TrEMBL record:
The gene is rbsK. SUPFAM superfamilies: Ribokinase-like (SSF53613). Transmembrane segments: none annotated. Coiled coil: none annotated. It is found in: Cytoplasm. This is Ribokinase. Residues 1-284 form the Carbohydrate kinase PfkB domain. Requires a divalent cation, most likely magnesium in vivo, as an electrophilic catalyst to aid phosphoryl group transfer. It is the chelate of the metal and the nucleotide that is the actual substrate. InterPro entries: PfkB_dom (IPR011611), Ribo/fructo_kinase (IPR002139), Ribokinase (IPR011877), Ribokinase-like (IPR029056). ATP binds at N183, T211, R212, G213, E214, E215, G216, G242, D243, N267.
Length: 293
């Protein structure tokens, strides 16, 4: 099996469930609070590892209890952690998550994730050449994404970018990316366009995969616009569904599956993930996904 490198964020999630989303200046009572491992990078690494991927995490944590716990959890999940950057004098990243009526709002304090920077990546760049599939997200500095995309595309690596949180990307970066996976709300900002979805998809055949929640995933195969449907499940918590999709998609691509099959595999994994609470906690294992494929 091909080797997968995840270059991205590592956070501790602070989660509150509530019946009412507070308005500006308003205080409401929550129902339940818990902490959980998170960060889009770490989430994707765990998703891929649970599905049988050979995964190494590249990212940064602080010298604190959150950082220690998060590295231990990644190891327990079978993710290689030897190259994680441990930063002095700054806290491990956190995400504050509000969950209400099966939906969520998230605020991220990046902390040590800002140190997944050019200095760190230059030091590990030779190691990254040992990997075939690289997963990236937007919770590390943009210059880091640009550096990795440019550097690894020269070596014909498969680069998968989950562009969240959304911000506009240059044409130069897009040329280096093999697959990009925004959701239906993000793609217009990421691609700096107001054009209809079908027109945008035709510009990026077999590259742009738009995740659309219950509607599935839509892409252009070069001729036709294709939507791969989601599975029907009872929604409990959507946190981490996009990360599960990207991690699962990375595994399928690393196994040599064609694009349609890889999207279907990732849809099944993402669908199962929203039937449980928590980002990483809800991520399925390979035997669960194979039962419903």
């Amino acid at each position: 099996m091909a080797r997968i490198a995840v270059v991205g964020s590592i956070n501790m999630d602070l989660v509150v469930e509530t019946d009412i989303m507070p308005k500006k200046g308003e205080t409401v009572l929550g129902n339940h609070f818990f902490t959980a491992p998170g960060g889009k990078g770490a989430n994707q690494a765990v998703a891929a590892a649970r599905l049988g991927g050979n995964v190494t995490m590249f990212g940064s944590v602080g010298i604190d209890q959150n950082g220690e716990n998060l590295r231990a959890i990644l190891k327990e999940e079978g993710v290689e952690t030897a190259f994680i950057n441990i930063v002095e004098g700054i806290a491990t990243g956190v995400a504050i998550i509000e969950i209400c009526e099966h939906d969520n709002r998230i605020i991220v304090a990046s902390g040590a994730n800002q140190y997944t920077n050019l200095e760190y990546l230059t030091n590990v760049s030779k190691e990254l050449l040992n990997y075939d599939v690289i997963l990236l997200q937007h919770e590390i500095p943009l210059e880091s994404i640009e550096y990795i995309a440019n550097f690894l595309s020269i070596y014909n690596k498969t680069i998968i970018l989950n562009p969240a949180p959304a911000f506009a990307l240059s044409d130069e970066i897009l040329k280096c990316i093999t697959y990009i996976t925004p959701n239906e709300h993000e793609y217009k900002m990421v691609l700096n366009t107001s054009d209809p979805m079908d027109e945008v998809l035709k510009r990026y055949p077999n590259k742009l995969l738009i995740t659309r929640g219950e509607e599935g995933v839509t892409y252009c195969d070069g001729t036709n616009i294709i939507t791969v449907p989601s599975i029907n499940v009872e929604i409990v918590d959507t946190t981490g569904a996009g990360d599960t999709f990207t991690g699962a998609f990375g595994v399928a691509i690393s196994e040599g599956q064609d694009l349609l099959k890889a999207i279907h595999f990732a849809n099944c994994a993402a669908g199962l993930s929203i039937t449980k609470m928590g980002a990483q906690k809800g991520m399925p294992r390979l035997d669960e996904v194979l039962k419903i494929r």
